[in-house]
Amino acid sequence: MGEQGPGSGDERVKPAQKVPAKKASAKKTSAKKAAAVKKAPTRKATTAKAGPETATKAAAKKATKASAKTAPAAKAAVAKATAKKAAAKATAAKIMPAEPPRAESHTALVRRARRINRELAEVYPYAHPELDFENPFQLLIATVLSAQTTDLRVNQTTPGLFAKYPTPEDLAAANPEEVEEILRPTGFFRAKTKSVIGLSKGLVEQFGGEVPGRLEDLVELPGVGRKTAFVVLGNAFGRPGITVDTHFQRLVRRWKWTAETDPDKIEAAVGALFPKSDWTDLSHHVVWHGRRICHARKPACGACPIAPLCPAYGEGETDPEKAKKLLKYEKGGFPGQRLKPPQAYLDAGGRPAPPLGAA
Ligand code: SF4
Questions:
Q1: What pLDDT was estimated at residue 67?
Q2: pLDDT category, 55, cuts 50, 70, 90?
Q3: Per-residue pLDDT reduced to its tens digit, 223-250
Q4: How far is the CA of 316 from the centre of ligand 1 (A)?
Q5: Using CA positions, which residue lies closest to atom 2 of ligand 1?
Q6: CA 307 to ligand 1 center in whole angstroms
Q7: Is the Cβ–Cβ distance between 26 and 55 less than 8 Å?
Q8: Which ligand 1 atom is the nearest neighbour of the CA of 313?
Q9: Does the pLDDT value for residue 47 go beyond 80?
Q10: Where exactly are the structural domains of the chain?
Q11: Whose CA is nearest to atom 6 of ligand 1?
Q12: What does pLDDT average to over the chain?
């Protein structure tokens, strides 16, 4: 952070530095007055053309006259200086981020990627899965339900679902119409009902009603792909996994960690940049950043803590004030998505999301 590119707006007013050479020959008292005159560029030019003594006299005269006119002139000067300061600040902000790493070596990429992850870990020290769950079965079902909707909406819906169908056996034997009614708020509720009932039947028939803790078994279940499997493995079983969801895909491409578009290839490419033990937390950091700051349509670049490391800086809003207004969830002053967040989140000042129907 805080890195600046070349030409970071270090402006110097060179003409003002030439004048003191002439001023040195003038008397001390007059020099003070001449210095006052020096602030007005037109007067300075006139003075510079004349000899030192003429310059001193002229300066003294003009300084007296100028004092009468100083008020508006001073105001204008202050306004000009403020505008100049703001422009310099804006320029500095514009050039702050890194240039797209066209010929970045693998080692440099690994360093930058890990640094981004470290910075994000500081911004989101409590990053966690944003789906409420109490056991692997609940997390598996909640992950399937989270397609095409927010985790918040899922969290507001699953308490009713799990109260009525607490086990895979219960959900496998459920009346689809009743499940549809519960799942209606999550959208695509008929397809999701089919999925969760089919998945529960698979758990009962193939795994004795237990969620398996191995990737190869999880992906055997109906409707479970690698993304869902890694969410469950990483968060319910503590086995490292990279979750390549829509946020993850977008952000790693913006950061030029990989140019791959296929989720499995992205997973492999990004996995190669980090030790395995970092994978689960890395996934949380990236997804959290995508949800809160680096949005799909309007990333809040002006409020982004990793802007100096991001080749895509400027793809979104760069004005800090406007960017702040784009922040979502607790970064924008709203609670996170979990109704039952982990203690670390609450300890850091996070607030639980409201249940369904709450204002
Ligand atoms: S918000 Fe802007 S600067 Fe930050 S990661 Fe996204 S594109 Fe890069």
A1: 42
A2: very low
A3: 899 999 999 999 999 999 999 999 999 9
A4: 7
A5: 301
A6: 6
A7: yes
A8: 3
A9: no
A10: 14-95, 136-347
A11: 294
A12: 81
Cβ count near 37 (within 10 Å): 21
pLDDT, tens digit, 9 for 90 and up, residues 271-315: 999 999 999 999 999 999 999 999 999 999 999 999 999 999 999
Query: Which atom of ligand 1 is found nearest the CA of 316?
Result: 2
Q: Which DSSP string do the residues of 98-114 spell out, in sequence order?
A: PPP-TT--HHHHHHHHH
Q: Specify the pLDDT at position 39.
A: 38
Concerning whether 227 is annotated as a catalytic residue, the answer is yes
CA 165 – CA 218 distance, rounded (Å): 21
For 316, the 3-state DSSP assignment is: coil
**What is the pLDDT, as a whole number, of residue 65?**
46
Distance CA 308, CA 94 (A): 10
Q: How far apart are CA 288 and CA 330, in angstroms?
A: 11
pLDDT at 118: 98
Distance 312 CA to ligand 1 centre (A): 6
**Distance (Å, rounded) from C-alpha 155 to C-alpha 174?**
20
Would residue 94 show up in a list of annotated catalytic residues for this protein? no
The residues lining ligand 1, judged by C-beta closer than 6 Å to any ligand atom, are: 254, 293-294, 299-301, 304, 306-307, 310, 312-313, 315-316
Pick the catalytic residue from 38, 44, 227, 256: 227
Distance 304 CA to ligand 1 centre (A): 6
Binding residues for [4Fe-4S] cluster: 294, 301, 304, 310
Choose the weakest-confidence range: 101-105, 126-130, 163-167. 101-105
| Burial of 13 (C-beta count, 10 Å sphere; 0-12/13-18/19+) | exposed
List, as one string, the DSSP characters of 191-213. Answer: HHHHHHHHHHHHHHHHHTT---S
Task: Tell me the CATH number of domain 136-347, given options 1.10.340.30, 1.10.1670.10, 1.10.10.10, 2.40.50.140.
Answer: 1.10.340.30
Which pTM value belongs to this model?
Answer: 0.72
